[in-house]
Design goal:
alpha/beta; TIM Barrel; 8-stranded parallel beta sheet; 19% strand; binds D-xylitol-5-phosphate; binds zinc ion
Length: 213
């Protein structure tokens, strides 16, 4: 069954505990978007927020690093409570070493790619990944429009995972709503990230439920 990972970027930061409890009660994973204003043209939040969420989280925490030199912060995210950590393929010169660092720090390791990077560039790293993160918008902002070519990208990477007999999961992130969730799961997505369609809804719990169905 597909897992739902609400993006806390769209949460209500004045009432974060309320939104954390919604995820605890109804979703599967906390998706934490970390932006540095360099790898992407936006800045999100950092360790104080991650640590605050960790104090209340009863579901795994998934740090999506949109930062240059991710290696520098892998240990800090593990200490802050992350259970899964992904970084972007083109944010480092040494992806294999960084993936090994993530695992050595006790987290599940993921490689992320933006929509303009061929999915085939992930292939040689799949055996080193616990999951891959296929962006269905360009990393940097919540609330963007879903890019339709994502379906075939998911199918391509999923086929390669199956062909190689690997257990790597496929996470998809950006512009996901109840309108496209079913098609994404059918294409092979294992984890669906959703920000604005969950926390922008009048009833976030119901939105999570309809993403699942
Ligand atoms: C975009 C982030 C996403 C984003 C998803 O850079 O990686 O996780 O917050 O938000 P929505 O679901 O609103 O596209
Ligand atoms: Zn994300």
């Amino acid at each position: 069954m597909v897992r739902i990972a609400p993006s806390m970027l769209s949460a209500d930061f004045l009432h974060l505990e309320k939104d954390v409890e919604t995820v605890n009660a109804h979703a599967d994973i906390f998706h934490l978007d970390i932006m540095d204003g360099v790898f992407v043209p936006n800045i999100s939040y950092g360790f104080p927020v991650v640590e605050a969420i960790a104090r209340k989280a009863r579901k795994p925490m998934d740090a999506h690093l949109m930062i240059i030199r991710p290696e520098k912060y892998i240990g800090r995210f593990a200490e802050a409570g992350a259970d899964m950590l992904s970084f972007h393929l083109n944010a480092t010169d040494t992806p294999s070493e960084a993936l090994a660092m993530v695992k050595d720090a006790g987290m599940q390791a993921g490689l992320a790619i933006n929509p303009d990077i061929p999915v085939e560039s992930l292939f040689k790293y799949l055996h080193e990944c616990d999951f891959v993160l296929i962006m269905s918008v360009f990393a940097g902002f919540g609330g963007q429009k879903f890019i339709e070519t994502t379906y075939s990208r998911i199918e391509t990477v999923k086929n390669e995972i199956m062909r190689s007999g690997l257990s790597c999961l496929v996470e998809v992130d950006g512009g996901i709503s109840p309108a496209n969730a079913r098609s994404l799961a059918d294409a092979g997505a294992d984890i669906l990230v959703a920000g604005s369609s969950v926390f922008g809804a009048s009833d976030p719990a119901a939105a999570i439920l309809s993403l699942r169905q």
